[in-house]
Each structure stands twice: as structure tokens, then as C-alpha cells.
User: Which sequence fits this backbone?
């Protein structure tokens, strides 16, 4: 028998997003189970328990489709009634949303309920790009208004040091991104013990980047302190982001500000920002 979940664990915010404004989050990962096949050093949520997840993992914490759907309906209806200022409804939270076993079913429900309660609010998704080769997931993702695909490294070595993947191959991500169109590419530029900045100048990476059919490229720094991995807390300078943007602009024949967007903050934000749920955007 399913029990009623706390709506705030699934529908949270709105929170301020550097890319989307006031973003109403949809979190598909229980706090007890970080569902991700990455263990990024800059992630505040901590390391995942494992890389592969089964339906039983979610059922154990009652994170079932029925409970998720009820929370989405309740949350959207409540925000509509209160006329909450919302710019986007965004799938992002404590893990990789596309690893949720009933992802497509949830997308169907979210879009139906959005039409009822917040029909003028667009939808978005942040993903680590590892499941984009799965047809059902890909079809669901492309029903949303905006898609942000992560690519945090220019080579395998930087990928393993920055994202610390579990059972994921760097080349697979590159091929996923090469096979798709109409998406926005997101690159987190890290500093500290394991910087990834230099990897983006790799000639082979650049050739692949030229072939990718993204609509916009975001270069951003880490703006929230990472208590789980403090070695990543050293911020990248604005000058480095600008240099990389200029390099990409020249090589890709794209405009800075329109096609290539720099997101940089002069200081880290308050470390006391609640950890759960957390929108990683």
C-alpha cells in the first residue's frame, strides 16, 4: 500500500536559477538514495550509493510513480492557487532524473497537470547526458520545452577526475551528444585540486564540439560551497571563463552572450543553503 509523500520533497521551491529565473523544481530522488551514475567532486549531495538502480530501490523509500504523481498534482495545484511567481517547471534535484525507472510515465503526468494548473509555464530538464541513447528516455526529454545536457570535460582523464563516473564511458556521452539536436550544452568549469579547464582546448574534443548541434553553450563556475568535497571550492576566475568563451567563439563561429553564455559569480553563496532538495543548475 502506498503512503502519501511529503509534497515538498518532490515539488520544491521555486528556487533562483541562473539560467531559468524562478524555477519550480521536480525532484525524482529520495533523500536516502542519491540516484546518479556520477560522483562529481563539486556536487553538494555527496556520493551515490551505487551506479545502477532498480525499481526496488525506489519502492523501499516509497518513491513510487503513484506517490510522485500525487505530489506533482498537489504541488502544481497549490502553487497555481497561491499564484506563486514561477518562470519554469524544472526536473532537477538530488540525482540524475532520467535514472528514475518510471521517468516517461512521470513526464506524461507532469505535462498533463501542467496544462491544468500552470499552462503558461514552460518545462526544463537538467541531465548528465548518460541516458540519451535510450529511445524512450530521449522521446520523453524532447517533449519538454528546454533541455540542458552536461559535458564537464574535454577528455577521458578530466572526465574521470571531475565527474567520477560509475560504469559510464566518456565516449558514450560524446556520441550521445553528437546524435542529437536542439539542446543546450552545459559545462561546469572547475578549479582546485582537479581542474578541467585545459581539457577543453584538446583538438579532438574541439572537432567533436564543432559537430554538435546545440543551440546554446553555457560556461559556468561553481557558486555554492561543496562541503562534501571542499577541494573543489576554489573558484575559477572570470578571466578563464572569458578566455574559454572567446576560444570557442572563434573556433565555432558563435557569438558570446547569445550563443555562448558565461555564468560567473564573484563569491560563493551561503553554505547554509538547504541541502535537500537541491536544484543543481
Assistant:
Amino acid at each position: 500500500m502506498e503512503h502519501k509523500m511529503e509534497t515538498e520533497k518532490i515539488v520544491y521551491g521555486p528556487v533562483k536559477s541562473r539560467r531559468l529565473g524562478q524555477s519550480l523544481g521536480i525532484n525524482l530522488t529520495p533523500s536516502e538514495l542519491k540516484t546518479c551514475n556520477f560522483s562529481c567532486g563539486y556536487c553538494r549531495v555527496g556520493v551515490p550509493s551505487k551506479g545502477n538502480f532498480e525499481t526496488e530501490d525506489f519502492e523501499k523509500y516509497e518513491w513510487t510513480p503513484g506517490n510522485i504523481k500525487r505530489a506533482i498534482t498537489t504541488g502544481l495545484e497549490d502553487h497555481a492557487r497561491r499564484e506563486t511567481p514561477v518562470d519554469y517547471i524544472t526536473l532537477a534535484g538530488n540525482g540524475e532524473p532520467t535514472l528514475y525507472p518510471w521517468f516517461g510515465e512521470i513526464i506524461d503526468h507532469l505535462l498533463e497537470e501542467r496544462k491544468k494548473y500552470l499552462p503558461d509555464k514552460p518545462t526544463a530538464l537538467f541531465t548528465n547526458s548518460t541516458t540519451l541513447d535510450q529511445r524512450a528516455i530521449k522521446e520523453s526529454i524532447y517533449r519538454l520545452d528546454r533541455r540542458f545536457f552536461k559535458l564537464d570535460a574535454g577528455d577521458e582523464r578530466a572526465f574521470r577526475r571531475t565527474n567520477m563516473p560509475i560504469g559510464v564511458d566518456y565516449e558514450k556521452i560524446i556520441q550521445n551528444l553528437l546524435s542529437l539536436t536542439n539542446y543546450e550544452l552545459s559545462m561546469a568549469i572547475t578549479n582546485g585540486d582537479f581542474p578541467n579547464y585545459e581539457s577543453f582546448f584538446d583538438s579532438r574534443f574541439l572537432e567533436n564540439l564543432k559537430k554538435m548541434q546545440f543551440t546554446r553553450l553555457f560556461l559556468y563556475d561553481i557558486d555554492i560551497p561543496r562541503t562534501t568535497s571542499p577541494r573543489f571550492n576554489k573558484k575559477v576566475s572570470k578571466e578563464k571563463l572569458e578566455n574559454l568563451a572567446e576560444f570557442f567563439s572563434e573556433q565555432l563561429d558563435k557569438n558570446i552572450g547569445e550563443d555562448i553564455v558565461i555564468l560567473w559569480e564573484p563569491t560563493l553563496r551561503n553554505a547554509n543553503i538547504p541541502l535537500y532538495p537541491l536544484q543543481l543548475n
Notes: The radius of gyration is 18 Å.
